[in-house]
Design a protein that fits this description.
heterodimer, A: mainly alpha, 3 strands, elongated, B: 83 residues, mainly alpha, 3 helices, flat
């Protein structure tokens, strides 16, 4: 199995990324579309099994573990890579496209990794390539945001690595399979923390809105799809049934919703809703039944498409107008009608409206919760879904395309539907969102376990419609309260953003003072005094002894030619002090001899 | 095409709103009178219009709690981090 050549789908993207800068002119754009399509084609023809196993030192590295779980994730990720690249066809900076492809290659590498070492390798590839999607925005904040992003992910990577090393030490096994979640060791906890940092589980989540709100227009489309969903894959593979994930997932689902109410920046609002939606998946992993894991995969699949669509819709507004804050937008439906329709389709999909993708995927996880009698979790997740519709289905479209027109003259002037390739990319994603919602076998046949679940029952339909439409009623009744405010919402990144400042202040206040004291006292005054002491000390001692003799004998003491002056000069020339040191030494030796 | 449709709806806003209320009432009626609730997960769901109340209360709770939380000091000036 290991001997024959196996073509890794990530390899297509890596080779493509390396060739891309060499291509100029008319060839560039067709090539940009071809590479992700090829990678998608490679995934489509993959057969299940274990491939590309290489011996390395004492270990066997497995690059190609292909089964139902890895296939469903690889399918949607390569498909999204194509949609994202099509959307970003306008990007002239070839290095941005390179970064995006390497990032997707990292995700695919993790998904097909059969052991923890390969997984870690690609895990780091993801972090170090995706950061460029933030940096290439080119604003002064982008640089700082990118460094923060890198800092957090490096920390997560180190925790993961520590877990892997400890796990290997304890078991001698590097293979990546379901861990013993019933009695987890410290190593397993560390690996889980590494994973959930990338899944943006609070309190390890603040990197996500920070970075995704600052990424380039097309970079954000990539970022919203890959990091968190790769982490969801890793959790589903290793931690199904880990109970702590249920409350963590529910907290995530609600946390994202709360911050989305406060958020004024449309892309940051969507980013908080990633946290909320990934919360369903994390909770699903925690429930861990076949229905739940199917739900996790289905929801990740649907999520990648509708969240990509939402980021594309809002991104097109940013691309055309240069604005993404609600307080600088509004009333744009006449100017950007297609962007509105596509964003609305994304919004209805994430809100789990019947006939849209979320309806057939999210409900599987909630149903798994009810089936396991986890009523509190199921009800709270349902509550969060009201919040999802409130923001992504209603607030985003309303305050960008309707509502009060806050556009400046230039914003209004620049607003128009985006270029054809952006519209086409959104149309493809929108089509898939509806296809998943309407024709359930398309998605359900790809899931890891056989599906016995039927979303379109009278009860589920009526339940969902009541929740959603009464949420809409609440939205319009409380419209005034929901009007976005031009504020920034403080999140836990405060600690490492302001923590730095506290450190700086402490540095200035305390270390600075210490430093000054050191310089003035230890380096200035003390040596000076010591110098004086050693220079003048013997002279003064001598003076103390000889002065009375001089006074008795009537020697002239004071003045420039006096005896005191002559004595000091002798000492300054060190003639005497060398001699006196010698005398002291001899005296000391004599004392020692006597004592001995 | 889309713009015309939206403008048409906006001109008949009162009608749209009335239709909206009609749909809400219809949903609750269907829930109370027609729907087979034998497969409901919990007893509470058997109350007529349970999910309508759940949806509305969720929405209000989310708005009120979030805004309260935001005004605790979480919402700061836009240039907070630049200062």
């Amino acid at each position: 199995m290991s001997g024959e050549f196996w073509f890794h789908p990530a390899l297509v993207l890596i080779i493509g990324a390396l060739v891309l800068p060499l291509l100029k002119g008319a060839l560039r754009k067709p090539f940009m579309l071809l590479v992700p399509l090829l990678s998608f084609a490679v995934v489509l023809q993959l057969e299940q099994g274990v491939f590309a196993v290489f011996p390395f030192l004492d270990w066997e590295l497995t690059f190609g573990r292909v089964d139902q779980l890895s296939l469903v994730f690889a399918y949607i990720m390569t498909l999204m890579c194509f949609i994202g690249t099509l959307y970003g066809l306008h990007v002239d900076n070839e290095y941005e496209v390179m970064a995006a492809w390497l990032y997707v290659a990292g995700s695919l590498g993790v998904i097909f990794a059969g052991d923890l070492l390969v997984l870690f390798l690609f895990w780091e590839v993801m972090a170090f390539s995706s950061v460029f999607l933030v940096w290439f925005r080119g604003r002064s904040e982008s640089l700082a945001t990118g460094y923060r992003y890198l800092l957090v992910h490096t920390f997560g990577g180190l925790v993961l690595l520590a877990g892997i090393v400890l796990h290997y030490q304890a078991t001698g096994d590097l293979s990546f399979n379901q861990f013993d979640v019933a009695s987890p060791t410290i190593a397993i906890w560390l690996i889980m923390i590494g994973f959930i940092l990338n899944a943006a589980v609070p309190p390890l989540h603040a990197w996500l809105p920070d970075a995704y709100g600052e990424a380039t227009v097309s970079g954000a489309v990539f970022m919203c799809a890959f990091t968190t969903k790769t982490a969801v894959y890793a959790l589903a593979r290793g931690f199904a049934g880990m109970e702590i994930l249920i409350p963590l997932g529910v907290i995530m689902a609600l946390y994202g919703v709360v911050y989305a109410v406060l958020e004024n920046d449309a892309r940051r609002l969507l980013a908080y809703h990633i946290i909320s939606q990934v919360g369903y998946m994390v909770a699903g992993v925690g429930i861990g039944t076949e229905l739940a894991i199917n739900g996790v995969c289905a929801h990740a699949f649907a999520h990648i498409l509708y969240k990509g669509l939402l980021f594309m819709g809002v991104g097109s507004v940013l691309y055309m107008t240069g604005k993404s804050k609600f307080t600088e937008l509004g009333g744009l439906y006449r100017k950007m009608p297609w962007a509105f329709v596509f964003t609305l389709i994304g919004g209805l999909s994430i809100s789990a409206f019947p006939l849209f993708s979320g309806f057939v995927s999210k409900s599987m996880i909630v149903a798994a919760g009810f089936e396991d009698h986890l009523y509190w979790a199921a009800f709270l997740l349902t509550l969060a879904s009201a919040g999802t519709f409130l923001h992504t289905g209603l607030k985003v479209p309303y305050f960008i395309w309707f509502g009060k027109n806050n556009c400046s003259a230039t914003t209004w002037e620049r607003a128009a539907d985006p270029p054809w390739h952006m519209n086409l990319a959104m149309a493809v994603a929108a089509f898939l969102c509806i296809l998943i919602g309407v024709y359930t076998p398309y998605l359900y046949q790809m899931l890891p376990y056989a599906v016995a679940y039927e979303p379109y029952t009278a009860y589920h339909l009526l339940e969902t419609m009541q929740i959603l439409l009464f949420t809409a009623l609440g939205f319009f009744l409380f419209l005034k309260k929901l009007t976005p405010e031009p504020v920034t919402s403080l999140d836990l990144d405060w600690f490492y953003r302001m923590g730095g400042r506290v450190f700086q202040l402490a540095d200035e206040q305390w270390l600075g003072r210490l430093n000054r004291w050191g310089q003035e006292t230890l380096a200035g005054t003390v040596p000076h005094r010591l110098n004086l002491f050693f220079q003048e000390g013997p002279a003064r001692l001598c003076l103390l002894v000889v002065r009375p003799f001089w006074q008795l004998t009537g020697v002239k003491i004071d003045g420039p030619d006096g005896a005191e002056r002559q004595l000091r000069d002798t000492f300054n020339r060190s003639l005497f002090s060398v001699g006196s040191t010698a005398i002291c030494t001899v005296a000391m030796l004599l004392v020692l001899l006597l004592l001995a | 095409m889309i713009v015309k449709l939206i403008d048409g709806l906006r001109r008949r806003l009162k009608l749209v709103i009335r239709l909206g209320y009609g749909v809400l009432a219809l949903l609750v009626l269907l829930d109370a009178l027609v729907l087979d609730k034998s497969h409901a997960h919990t007893a509470a769901e058997k109350l007529p219009g349970f999910w309508a109340i759940f949806g509305f209360v969720s929405c209000v709770l989310i708005i009120v709690i979030s805004k309260w939380y935001g005004h605790l000091g979480i919402m700061a000036r836009e240039d907070y981090y630049e200062r």
